[in-house]
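explain this:
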Amino acid sequence: MTRWLAEYAWLPDRAEPTRDVLIEATDGRLTAVTPLTVDRPPTAGVEVLGDAVRLPGLTVPGLANAHSHAFHRALRGRTHDGRGDFWSWRSLMYAVATRLDPDTYLALARAVYAEMALAGITCVGEFHYLHHGPGGTPYDDPNAMSAALVEAAAHAGIRLTLLDTAYLAGGVDGAPLTGPQRRFGDGDALRWAARVDAFRPADDHVRLGAAIHSVRAVPAEQLATVAGWADRNGLPLHVHLSEQPAENDACRAVHGCTPTRLLADHGVLGPHTTAVHATHPTAADVALLGDSRTRVCVCPTTERDLADGVGPVRRMADAGSPLSLGSDSHAVVDLFEEARALEMDERLRTRRRGHFTPVELVTAATVGGHAALGWGDAGRLAVGQRADLVTVRLDSARTAGVPPVGAFFAATAADVTSVVVDGRPVVDGGRHLTVDVPTELRDAIAAVTAKEDS
């Protein structure tokens, strides 16, 4: 058994953190979460509780990054000059995709996932569509790139939901894949399903899921095949939705309806489905998502970086869509920033304050993300849950003087001091215990951008 004494801990169903909480775990599961009633300063915990590891600051459940494209991390700082939009950025992303192979992807993803661990992320959903070799030729192991991601997460010490993504067409009109996109495709949904069926990692830290890249990339008549495969296997299903107005316009031109309506008509929406972005839904779309209890994952720093816009997140939550958060292209890896952006971006959109409570922000960053990724036993500091603990200092230049309840409005990833995943320490003293994150990021990114930078 391992014991921790949290100076403050954010417990379920509490409007604000609780002081002096003893947390106990056995075999990676929480066995006791006990607020202490003795009136004493938190520093007395070391003497009174003996072997309990003291966690000074605020301890929250592990954060869940529900939407990641690991290889996009190589673009950070390389796409911010000049003008452009999502579509011009995409051409730069494709250039990186052409240079990756299983070995370089393993090195890059390992460093990226370790960066996430440093930021308090204990579980990531990898929206994975970089499946094949150059020109679309499968590797000897057709799931070699998937295996690289699974191994990378194991090295970094975090859990992974591998959202194997169907990417079959080059546009809403069903145009064939061209150029770098050929690496993403399996031909049709049945061949996609056959390849995914052949990949069944036994590792405890990974679960499978499915993804429809978008209505641009999966023809309408094949949407039900992907959704049906996920449903039969009891797996989460994710889909990029209405990220760009151009996507909505193209879908209306070809199908006479919005992307949300198209997904609804083909049985894609539902409580096991997560719509990623949902930046430009109509009022009818919001109702379709909410009535079906489809989850919504927003990625504010990426949506901001790519000038995508701000979606009606409060209205979608009120309609019945549970929220989660993602770092997507990793312009920033900081779930505290993503969480407070729910409130801050809504203020910009409406010119009013006070849309999300601190508890709602914490929920989106923790239990909401884990649920979207198929880990219903994570995201709460409660008995029976996975022993994921993230501790944030309350004495940094950013958090000094901030009450614990305000931490999600003040802290950044740099304030994370300790991370425990399934009862195992992964970060201590703000340092990853097994990965030299800055060095490995530098070397892995150099390996896939050297030709571009020369």
Residues 102-118 form the longest helix (17 residues).
